[in-house]
C-alpha cells in the first residue's frame, strides 16, 4: 500500500513542486538578488532587425498579418521583413509577393520540411543583427518590436521573449482556463527574468542574437525553447520583456488545443533531451535547476499519470478513502470527456475546467508516447485561431 500510495501521489507531488514550489523558490531568490535589464540612453541607435514569419497555407490570414507588420514602429531602413513559406500550396506565396514593394521578402522552401527548417534557412537570408520570430496568427502592437529589441542594448542578453496576452470572446470553450494559464506563465517568466534568466521563450514573439542562431537545429526541435539554452551555453542570459506585448487569439475548440499541445510538448521534450547538458547543475548552476523545475518537472507527471491512475484503482479495492478518491477522479474524467464531446456543455465553468484538464493530461501523455515511439514531427499544421481586433492602447499591466 505504501508503494501504491507513492505511485498514486507522485504526479500530483511533482506538479505541485513545479507549479507552486518552484515559483516560490524563484520569488525568494528575487527578494535577495535581482538581475535588472540595463536600460540604454534614448539617443542610442537601433540595431538592424530581421523579422521572420513562418507560414504554411496561410492564404486566409497572411494579408492581414503583413498589413499589421508593415506598420510596426521601427526604422524601415533597419528592418527586414522575411516570410518563411514551408512550400505553401494555397496561394500564400502570391499574396506575400504583393507586398514586395513594401519591403516584404519571401523565402520559399522547395518542399515541406517544417517550421524549424525554415528558421534554420532564415539565418543565411537574414541581414539583421537581431532575428525576431513572429507567429503568423498573432497580433503584435506597433510599439512592441521597439520594446523587445531595445533590451538587446544590454550585452549580457542573448534572447528576449515577448509577453503573450491571451485574447478571445466569452463563448470560446477554453476561454478562462487558457487565459489564466498564460497569465501564470508570463508572471513566472517575469520572476525568472528578475532572478537571472528565463528557460524558454514565447514561440509567438521572441528575438535572438544572430550569433546564437548560427548553428542549425534538427528539424524536429523548437527554436523558441532551444534559444535560451543555446544562449546560456554561449554565456548569455534570456529575459521576458513585460511591455513587449503580443496578442494571442485563443483557439475556439479544446480539441484544437489538444493537437497543438501534443505537437509543442513533444518537440519541447525532444529539445530538452537534445540539449540535456544544460540540466547539469554542477556546470550551469541555477539555470540547470530552473530548467529541470520549469520544464522537466512539468512534463514528467503526464508520463506517470496512467501509472498513478492504475495504482489508485488498485488501492480503491482495499481502502474506502482510496475508493472515494478514485470515484472522484473517474467522475472528473467523465465530465471532462463529456465537455469535449458536447460543446453545448462548455457554458458550464465546471465542465469547461474539467475538459481543459482532461485535454491537457491527454495531450501530455500523447506527447510522451510520440517521443518514446520515436515519432518525428518536423512539419506542422498551423493552429486555426479566430480573428482578433487590433487594440489601440495596451498597458503593460
Search tags:
single chain, 397 residues, alpha/beta, Spore Coat Polysaccharide Biosynthesis Protein SpsA, Chain A, seven-stranded mixed beta sheet, 11 helices, 7 strands, 50% helix, 13% strand, globular, disordered C terminus
Please explain how this structure is put together.
- By secondary structure, the protein is α/β, with parallel strands linked by helices.
- The chain has a domain at 44-291: Spore Coat Polysaccharide Biosynthesis Protein SpsA, Chain A, CATH 3.90.550.10.
- The protein contains 11 helices and 7 strands.
- Strands 3-2-1-4-6-5-7 form a 7-stranded mixed β-sheet, sandwiched between helices.
- 42% of the residues are buried.
- Residues 169-174 and 388-397 have low confidence and may be disordered.
